[in-house]
Amino acid sequence: MTSPQHPSPILLKLENLSVEFAKGAQRVRAVANVGLQIRAGQTLGLVGESGSGKSTLGRAILKLVPIKQGTISFDGQEIQGLSSSSMRPLRRQMQMVFQDPSLNPRQRAGDMLNEVLDTHQLHQGTVRQARIHELLELVGLKPEHASRFPHEFSGGQKQRLGIARALATESKFIVADEPLSALDMSIQAQIVNLLIRLKSQLGLTLLFISHDLDVIEYLCDHVVVMYLGRVMESAPTAELFENPRHPYTQALLAAAPIPDPSQPAPIVVLHGEPPSPLNPPSGCVFRTRCAHATSQCSEHIPELHNLGNDHAAACLRLDDF
Question: Cα torsion for 269, 312, 227, 53, to the nearest 10°?
Answer without folding.
Answer: -150
